[in-house]
Amino acid sequence: MKRALTGLVCALLLLLAARASAHKPSDSYLILQRTAAGASGRWDIALRDLEPAVGLDRDHDGMINWGELRERLPIVTAYASARLHASTARGACTLTLAPQGVVPHSDGKYLALGVDWSCPRDAGPIVLRYDLLFDLDAQHRCVLRYSDGDTTQALVFSKARRGLTLSHVAPRFAAIVRLGIEHILSGYDHLLFLGALLLPAVLRRRDGKWLPASDFRSVLLDVLRTVTAFTVAHSLTLALSAAHWVVLPSRFVESAIAASIILAALNNLFPVLDADRSLAFGLGLLHGFGFAAVLADVGLAGRSFVHTLFGFNLGVEIGQLAVVIALLPVLHLLRRSRHYPKLGLPIASTVVMLVACVWLVERAFDLKIS
Amino acid sequence: MEFSSKQRRLWLFAAPLLLLGVAAAVTLAHPAPASAVPYIPRGDEEVLETLPGPVANAWLRTPAETAASTTLDVAAAVSRARAELTLYQQSADPRYLGRAEAALGTFWDEPAPPEPVLVLRARIRQSNHEFLGALGDLDHALMLSPDDGQALLDRASIRTVLGRYDAAREDCRALERLTARLYVVVCRASVAGSTGAAASGYAELSRALSSPRIETDDKCWAESLLGELASRLGQRARAEAHFRSVLTACPTDSYARGALADVLLDLDRNAEVVALLADQTRQDALLLRLAIAERRSHAPEFKAHFEDLSQRFEEARLRGSSVHRREEARFELELRDAGERALTLALENFQVQREVADVRIALESALTARQPARARDVIAFARSSGLEDPRILGLMASLSR
């Protein structure tokens, strides 16, 4: 979601490669994203604007070539970084500016600078101060796009307005609930895990064999118990993680979630753990850490912690319940199928396991399998 | 192999899971598309930017000059600002406006700066379509020195743009004893052109222009007005001749170029508009007219120019600028067929400026959007001022039907 939004914003801002170079007032473009440490993104400054400020056309031929710009990059970077500041209530943020090359806008080429701020921890909103070029071009503005989880703000620095606060727009409760629903419905790994757990819900293990459950009421009870165990477990770790009491590296969590699906599917094929509930609870603990990563993007700091946590969790449970309700009729049909224990369950579990294996490899080794 | 009903039920379950797995794999394999990314040029020789003419480079200033620029030297600030403003008038590049403003330094923000600063500040504000601010500065300047002909002329032109014709006429009268006859006549004729007296304005201005000793710039400026008055009277051939004559004497006069393009567009001579504007893509106003002509003649370049314009208006919107609302309204109306949106923009624009072109775009938009009621104020204004342009009269007739 966040990535897609940022992509959209960038595309809008930088619908590039204009063929006809425009006469346009001086603007710089600052595209920022909230990060755990502060904010990061990119800052595009027109070469035409840098020329009167630092002097790029060293041979005075009326043209700026890459050699001239490259040579002056340290000076340009120093000039720019002295004119863009971020701070929090607890002190200044440290800015790292890294030239990324050039990028065309409608009125010519711009220097693209990678921006990365590291701010004091948990220090509340970031206040930006922008002082570039106003002394040379009083109509200069900086168009700032700041995206913060799900919301994107468009702000403008001008000579009269040099300070801006990257306010954290607190999403309404409904929006938080919706985020939870969206997350569970688009997070295939959680659904797949739940699916793997529920696959044998219509069966009972007796003497090393899968047998159809005697009645649908017991199936319902079984599903209820499994889902409840999963819910209790992931709510617990979600709260622990969101409160920063237990923090696990995200790559580990993501990999472990993939592994949990493999385990659940394996247990269908070669049942070791008899009770689905213990599996649902034990492995469900891992999934809570995964949910917490989403909440961290939205940002809990400085706002009603319980409010957000509750709303998000509620959304997750609503989404989960919807999926389970949709699955119930299928389970009802499957209960009586003779082939289900010998064919359906193994095939479905194997498919689930294979998908999870791909995820595990991708996440554990940080690579993409196409 | 035959599927039993139970096998079918089995697939009921397996298939969605399979699809789910495939969907998950596809999602992972195709992450969100990356936006256009910066690139490292291939070699040191790659030219990234061609600088437009002279740039007053701060980095070339000597330490003494830098010091002077921060001290309160009115004469230096005014002369630097004037130089930038001249560059703006020659190129129509708005960056020079920002530089002119910066050149005025701390004087810009003073409530009561010296008179020359007031006049310059008014000029810059007028160029940024801050007409009321500009008017305030000129009122102030004329209080300090009532005989400043330039300030009077500028105020008359702003008052005309705002539709305050009686006040504008007063300025023209005050100008009579202060400046060359041509300026006075231009002042009067431009009010006449908006108030139903274009014919007498045209006659008087023609006579004044026949005087032999008139500088080229002044001649171009005055003859552009002649072309406009002719166009107001529906004499398009005469208007075309005037604008062409201006462009021969002053080829960089983008105002005359745009006005000529408008005359040709009204005559549906689109190929000639394309020829006139093909290399004038830097200015939004000219690119807009080029794109209109290209659209009407189904030229392949239209698509690219349309996208350029969309991007430029989007960029202007992002920075919070509304200088080009008239053009944007025309863009919406003629290139996007969005009458409703065009009308909204045109009415916003009408609150800021009320020249003939502003009236015209508002009426055209109202007609396309089929919302004559929203154009009521515009029509009332056009009636009360006595606008005589046959196109506008035609539009008003269609709207009141």
Reconstruct the topology from this structure.
The complex is a heterodimer of chains A (370) and B (401).
Chain A: H1 2-13, E1 27-34, E2 38-46, H2 47-54, E3 63-65, H3 66-81, E4 84-88, E5 91-92, E6 94-105, E7 108-118, E8 126-130, E9 141-148, E10 151-157, E11 163-166, H4 173-186, H5 188-198, E12 203-206, E13 209-212, H6 216-242, H7 250-269, H8 276-298, H9 305-335, H10 339-365
Parallel strand pairs in A: 1-9
Antiparallel strand pairs in A: 1-2, 2-7, 4-5, 4-8, 6-7, 8-11, 9-10, 12-13
Helix pairs in contact in A: 4-9, 5-7, 5-8, 5-10, 6-8, 6-9, 7-8, 7-10
Chain B: H1 5-29, E1 47-50, H2 63-70, H3 74-91, H4 95-103, H5 115-127, H6 131-144, H7 149-161, H8 165-175, H9 181-194, H10 198-209, H11 216-232, H12 236-249, H13 254-266, H14 270-277, H15 284-296, H16 302-319, H17 325-335, H18 339-352, H19 356-368, H20 376-385, H21 390-400
Helix pairs in contact in B: 3-4, 3-5, 5-6, 5-7, 6-7, 7-8, 7-9, 8-9, 9-10, 9-11, 10-11, 11-12, 11-13, 12-13, 13-14, 13-15, 14-15, 15-16, 15-17, 17-18, 17-19, 18-19, 19-21
- Quaternary state of this entry equals heterodimer
Biggest sheet strand order of chain A reads 6-7-2-1-9-10
User: What is the helix tally of chain A?
Assistant: 10
Instruction: Spell the H/E element sequence of chain B.
Output: HEHHHHHHHHHHHHHHHHHHHH
What overall form of chain A do the CA principal axes indicate?
A: elongated
Strand content of chain A: 15-25%
Mean pLDDT of chain A: 82
Distance between the first and last residues' Cα of chain A: 21 Å
